[in-house]
Amino acid sequence: MKNSMKKMRVWPGRPSPMGASWDGQGVNFAIFSENATKVELCLFESPESKSEFCRIPILENTDRVWHCYLPDVRPGQLYGYRVQGPYDPESGHRFNPYKVILDPYAKAIGRQVVWSNEMFGYRIGDPKEDISFDERDNAEFAPLAAVIDSGFDWKSDRPPKIPWHKTLIYELHVKGFTKKHPQVPEALSGSYAGLASDAVIMYLKDLGITTVELMPIHHHIDDRHLTEKGLSNYWGYNTLSFFAPDVRYASSPVPQEGINEFKKMVYGLHKAGIEVILDVVYNHTGEGNQMGPTLSFRGADNVSYYRLSNENKRYYEDFTGCGNTLNMQSPRVLQLIMDSLRYWVLDMHVDGFRFDLASALARELYAVDKLSAFFDAICQDPVLSQVKLIAEPWDLGLGGYQVGNFPVGWTEWNGKYRDVMRRFWKGDGGTTGEFATRLSGSSDLYEQSGRRPYASINFITCHDGFTLEDLVSYNQKHNEANKEDSADGSDHNYSWNCGVEGPTNDPSILALRERQKRNLLAALLLSQGVPMIRAGDEIGCTQRGNNNAYCQDNEISWVSWSITESKKQLFRFTQKLVRLRREQPVFRRRKFFQGRLIRGSGVKDITWFDVKGREMTDEAWDASSAMSLGVLLAGDAIQEVDERGERIVGDTLLLLMNASSEDAFFILPACRIGLRWELVLDTFDLNADAMAIAETREYKLKNRSLAVFILVKKPIKNGAK
């Protein structure tokens, strides 16, 4: 084969930037490997090629970066690497030159992995398992990178830069959100272009969201065991390339066109004033544990890229539940992540990141360390320190649950918020105190460290778990479609007391479910902090009780756009809540409530009441049976200024919440002379007259309901002056 290979001009090139870089005249290739003894660049003619047409030994090695420059190569060229070195799994080394590997800095994927036994560095079925060595060539099946031209006319693109306290996040899957959308052309459905279509942008604007959080769009692999079952890794939390947008979400299979399509999507969303945040998975890769394939990092330098067991480097430290953990102790791995993040901001113009299992990134030796090199690097970076940073503040290792412990500058998915909101509205006793703390911004988690209420990303549901519809409709998971005997997913029994499990025609059960959805959405959108809505919850989408639909690339997971009247009602209700939040500053404060009199106003910034209109006492907070309470948010007591230095003044709002199964008769707080309470909404009755004014201070709040009042001036009657 070598004799038939083409010869190409090869120049020394540069050790940076890493990856394949087109400069308008040729391409520079650079790959890091500390322990390699030889590196070869392999060029392929097409995705159908069974072998490389040119294999080029890279002779230059600078600071353990192997590099060369090919003046005859152009964008679109497919390539991979063969890396030689020791094969000694018990010392952590797994080099295998018979395997073509993907460039860890690949900007585009020209061919996806094709599963075969040749994709493994060891002999499948050998009694020695992964210690054995496989000499079969995998060139026919290996994933290949494509050289790209990074040039793009961004015109007048500007990041929307929505302030955190005004942010409303909408978590969606690029494919699933538009795959069945009736107004997205079929050729664009499920794609980046589909997400940027006029119909979708209009929907997002009508709903009132400010920021879309895209589930992983980094190129990922579909696990072999899933493909053999006819399934796929739909969610995408199985990254293989930290630089390449997944070509499966592009309307064109041409790698360069996919890159440009992603950029056009970002441009279109920015033009509509919508930010783009990426859900990124830097804690592990799709290569799995020691029994996994050799696709990229493992073959480039296993010891450098992965955290290995101190007892036996044959095995991996796994804080992610996915088989491996990236080695953040390695400066080159830290550089890889930082280069990737900067690439997505500077070249792709995204506005921020949500870090999957972020605690794993902060593990220096073993424990999670908020002063780790990763956080230091982010904090001092002039680019990354200015974008939105969201942590999923846990991993699966010991001590990995770190809600409230991330540094200043970071926000966090607040799992404690999710849990207590569900428990309170489900009717669990003993939750009132924590419910109040979470509703008012979780100061116990964030205030002492100098962070603000918007450090808390509040959510009721997310991609992982039940949809909102299923949360109030199922007591048990129904994951049979995953073909794992329903052993996967959370085993938590929600017991929402909403009657029969799953679909029903019983009007009373349906009414209760609809009300519970409204309660949860109202609590979410009227809490301090940053709300996040799972796409489709606002129109009652279901996954048929599947709480772990990670492998369901089908109508189980895709957003259903078959809109019934009840779905329209829920959408309109959500719109109303979003509008109320946007118009009333008391729901999006930049500072925590203090619960004390504000100088010059004579009122407290926040006051909690029981059903009798009395301020909550310690005994009332401690009562395990208490499931009803009210809170007054004093708009005229806000001591803040906006971005322009103007004082923020808003209305005073009153929220009443009744999570019990019995009606509650609230006595509304007394008003000053000339003022009265006006009903804004009641989750029990969508037809309640929004202009109805409470003539008395008593209000009957039906069971499992929430009501909102606004303090208004009392109208003048009988010609009085």
Structural description of this entry:
- It is a single chain.
- The chain is an alpha/beta fold.
- It has three domains: 2-146, Immunoglobulins (Immunoglobulin-like), CATH 2.60.40; 166-296 and 323-586, TIM Barrel; 590-713, Immunoglobulin-like (Sandwich), CATH 2.60.40.
- The strands form six sheets. An eight-stranded parallel barrel has the order 12-13-14-15-16-17-18-19.
- Helix 9 packs across helix 10, helix 9 (415-426) packs antiparallel against helix 13 (507-525) and helix 13 runs parallel beside helix 14 (565-583).
- The longest helix is centred in the C-terminal third of the chain and has 19 residues, at 507-525.
- The radius of gyration is 28 Å and the shape is elongated.
